[in-house]
Amino acid sequence: MPFRIRRHISTRPVTTFFVVAYLLSWIAWMPLVFSDWWATWSPLVLANNVQTMVFIMIGGFGPLVAAALVTWLIGDSVREWAGQLLRWQVSGRYWLFAILFPAIAVIAASAIHIVAFDGQFDPAPTSVLVLYPVLFLQVFLVGGGNEELGWRGFALPRLQESYSALVASLIIGVGWFAWHLPLFLVAGSSQAGDPVYYYALAVIALSVVFTWLYNETGGSVLLTMVLHGSVNTSGILYLVGGGAALQTDLPNGLLAVVFLAAALVVVAVYGSERLADVEVPTRPSGSQ
């Protein structure tokens, strides 16, 4: 690659990361968005749910691949960047938070629905709930957790070099939300049917919580992957109609408000500069 292009990327690594992540993911998702047109000339039939999920999962690796590519192009150590996955020796309370916080948030939103809005207690069937560990593992590996080396492992530490932790979180939150936009047009995706405005609020609020966890654990992408997996799986615990209810306005809005409340607590307790009681982790940048 010409030196001039590498130099340009080196001066704008985060912008380049977002552009490449969007490009890679959206290329994979566009056939799903335009599936009727695609079917007129392609031998692939994208109406099948399994095929749809395969395309969605492939696109989900966009942030990871983009982060790896930009890390390599700017001469930073890909090994050190990926090594954030190995930071597992942190306090047990952070593990508990990553695993339990989303479930507690979903149950809290359910309780508000029942108490304040006359929702009827109607949890998901036990047959669905027993699949929780399997669903979590799938999401952890290929259904959201795989994004984390991009959003938190690459973009966050670099943005925190120039901005406060809160501002960095908001930038990533907006970019993270916008990255999902094509999926709102894909039948069979977890975003299809979701109210876009509540989804945006939830994702941007969660970005603050993810930053807190990343900073508090000294830059553990592994923990943010666990949190991401828990967030994407815990919807089935909703006590008023199960996970399907979260594709309607009221449950979705209540959960977004609970996530917003959690983000506000983080800011109030830890301050906007670091969103943590410890120093902000430095980005992995050793030479290749």
UniProtKB/TrEMBL annotation:
Against InterPro entries, the record matches this protein to: MmRce1-like, Rce1/LyrA-like_dom
Q: What's any GO biological process attached to this entry?
A: proteolysis
- GO terms for molecular function, please? endopeptidase activity; metallopeptidase activity
> Which keywords does this chain's UniProt record carry?
Hydrolase, Membrane, Metalloprotease, Protease, Transmembrane, Transmembrane helix
Q: Where are the transmembrane segments?
A: 12-34, 54-74, 94-117, 123-142, 163-184, 196-214, 221-241, 253-271
**CAAX prenyl protease 2/Lysostaphin resistance protein A-like domain boundaries:** 133-233
Q: What is the protein's name according to its record?
A: CPBP family intramembrane metalloprotease
Organism phylogeny: Archaea, Methanobacteriati, Methanobacteriota, Stenosarchaea group, Halobacteria
